[in-house]
Amino acid sequence: MTYHDFKQGKCDERLSNVIDRVLNRMLGRQAAETFYVHLENTHSIQRQNIAHELDSFSSALREYFGAGAGVIEQVIHKNLEFAELETELDLAEKSRILKLV
After folding, report:
1. Which of 3, 11, 42, 71 is most exposed by smallest CB count within 10 Å?
2. How many CB atoms lie within 10 A of CB 20?
3. Digit-coded pLDDT (tens) for 77-97
4. Which domain holds residue 80?
5. Nearest-angstrom CA–CA distance, 59 and 73
6. How many folded domains does the chain comprise?
């Protein structure tokens, strides 16, 4: 495994974690699980492969949630930006940002 592969794997894992947290928070655990089942059965996308199938994931969100998909995508995007910032900031800076959000 190369450093690039390792780094990409970490990014994919971070994206998957952010998506999972957002779906669970916005929809509730049970509804998020139902969506994951739909995603796998209808679009052949397994949860751990979402990072590799973002276009299909986005299409599935729009198919399943209609106009609400845009809101879910925005929240995922904002949480991903914060997750990326979070890895580079010290505790004091995190506290400052949290107060702004």
Report:
1. 3
2. 15
3. 888 877 765 555 455 554 555
4. 3-100
5. 11
6. 1
